From TrEMBL, chains A, B:
Residues 5-61 form the HTH lacI-type domain. It comes from Luteococcus sanguinis. Keywords: DNA-binding, Repressor, Transcription, Transcription regulation. This is LacI family DNA-binding transcriptional regulator. Pfam families: LacI, Peripla_BP_3. CDD domains: HTH_LacI, PBP1_sucrose_transcription_regulator. GO terms for molecular function: DNA binding.
Length: 335, 335
DNA sequence: TTGAAAGCGCTAACAT
DNA sequence: ATGTTAGCGCTTTCAA
């Protein structure tokens, strides 16, 4: 631990008491400390480079102004980092610091992390998932002021901030329908993923509204999956005119498949991704559905601070919109 | 802050004094507390679910067992997450918690973050970069026990743990030479990136040892760059037989270009990437140079704890090896 | 072998 | 309007 400048030093230098220093620094000085002394305190603070010892303040106030965040694999995969990042900002803007512990999907480490964060006296606790999933909170978690982020509690006890997957897939589909497409294939992620199922729902619903049925192809989540399935699906004269992809990486695979088959995008094939993956979508000119990670992170802090303040949450699933990001991979069908 | 079980509660329940509880819990009981009472304390701890209040302990011990980590954009880009993740583990194994603040490359936020972490009384401070760069530590940083991770201090004051970029590019080149290639193009990242320059060095050195000169093409770091440059470079009969890429995303772009041009990899073209990007390399069967993020993270904690213990660091640049990861994108040249 | 007491740096109730 | 004091929960002398 660094320096040794305490409020006592400041008080001495300013010629006032330690309580005076405390009052000034906590904005409770008005009507209690003379303007002259306030001035003196502030000057001493600057001259000495004094910063209050947060640890002592935490002990005294029974509040650390920290929020403990346990993540499953956000750090290791890099997916969802924006969410945590924006949460960090939103928290900082309110004087809170996030204590983030990534547990790499290891339940034992998750349990330990919750214990560690509790013993560090976090004012609130959060479980943040890389992508939408069910997440049974570890023991002791639900005893605290807490919230899930991009996850739902199967027991319904802890509320969660989640993205609107159904709505996102619906928007994507409507976009293709508006462009004139009638033969749309959907390369879905594995069906045991929560998000995959919800997206299929939204997709199917939008098609039904246009009097169409879905063409679903279970695929996967990676470039290689998009390539493999794309090659099979597109190498035929009655291929679909548009493909909706499980995510942007799959879309990249479809781009690769189209290149091999000599199909040009978007003239002969429209492609829509999902996630708005910064490493993929902009570089491919890919139209995609944005996962609203930043908004979710900000929302989560807002809600959790409400919970910490004792206010009730209106619902157990707090939906955040997933807007379409239009780029150049969609055009009217050529036939 | 949660429940209110203190060491006092434990002491009462065990029928001993608070100091006895402290001694037992800190392993200093032997020869001081009777076996019977130790037993009683442990039992009471379990029954009550007591966990020591870390804040109080920190205040008393003048040590928080935390390490403050300021990152430039690891969280937002997801690149280098493994580094932080492994650092978290290594720290946890020694009873330390990482306080990670991502500042999104914003210098003002970086300054603030350092101040916040200092006032939180972190025992050590770290600056961790998304990828190798020069990083002038913010004011106040170098006053603490500190270290850079994947970054170098231009003033040479603060030591840094960095990957061996020169060695990595040399290994990659040697691999292609061993496979029989003589016409190797290197799609470099922008030259103002520190890593790009060092990789060119390693590449050139390895070629020189084989009596060859480099074919350097300044390119960029993204899929679109690889595609663009790849189309130009490979659409000619005297194209290179092998391409070494600035990173794996560029390599993905080259794959795309090769697909368009009808070139099969690795039969007609060998490709080597850099980074071992988990979202790209394995799915493309791409041979690549691994950025040793995990090893770097672990090493950083090790070194920083040494610094915190007052031990001197042997060098200002602590190199970590960058090993080759062989997959299926390299074969002997076809001509 | 154990308990009483001081004190880490801060804030807030209470005197002055 | 300002200073004194108690105490947050813990560890660590120091007496008993």
């Amino acid at each position: 631990m660094g320096k040794r400048i305490t409020s006592h030093d400041v008080a001495r230098r300013a010629g006032v008491s330690r309580s005076a220093v405390s009052l000034v620094l906590n904005g409770r000085a008005e009507g209690a400390i003379s303007a002259q002394n306030q001035e003196a305190v502030l000057r001493a603070v600057n001259e000495l480079g004094y910063r209050p010892n947060t640890v002592a303040r935490s002990l005294r106030n029974a509040s650390t102004h920290t929020i403990g965040v346990v993540t499953d694999s956000i750090l290791s995969t890099g997916f969802g980092g924006d969410m945590v990042n924006e949460a960090t900002r939103a928290a900082a803007a309110r004087g809170y610091l996030l204590l983030v512990v990534d547990c790499d999907r290891n339940p034992v480490r998750e349990q330990e992390a919750v214990q560690v964060l509790k013993s560090r006296q976090c004012d609130g606790l959060m479980l943040a998932a890389e992508h939408l999933r069910e997440w049974q909170p570890p023991p002791g978690f639900a005893d605290e002021k807490c919230l899930l982020l991009d996850a739902v509690d199967p027991s319904g006890q802890v509320p969660g901030v989640v993205s609107d997957e159904v709505g996102g897939a619906r928007s994507a589909t409507e976009l293709l329908l508006r462009a004139g497409h009638r033969e749309i294939a959907y390369l879905t992620g594995e069906s045991h993923y929560l998000a995959a199922g919800m997206r299929v729902q939204g997709h199917t619903k939008a098609l039904a509204a246009a009097g169409l049925g879905p063409q679903l192809v279970e695929c996967g989540w990676d470039i290689s999956d998009g390539l493999r399935v794309g090659l099979r699906l597109l190498d035929s004269p009655d291929r679909p005119t548009a493909v909706l992809c499980a995510n942007d990486r799959v879309a990249a695979g479809v781009f690769l498949a189209a290149a091999r088959l000599g199909l040009s995008i978007p003239d002969e094939l429209s492609v829509v991704g999902y996630d708005n993956d910064r490493n993929v979508a902009p570089h491919l000119g890919l139209t995609t559905i944005s996962l609203p990670h930043r908004a979710m992170g900000a929302r989560a802090i807002e809600v959790l601070l409400d919970v910490m303040a004792g206010r009730a949450v209106e619902s157990t699933r707090l939906l955040v919109d997933s807007p379409v990001v239009e780029r150049a991979s969609v055009a009217p069908p050529s036939r």
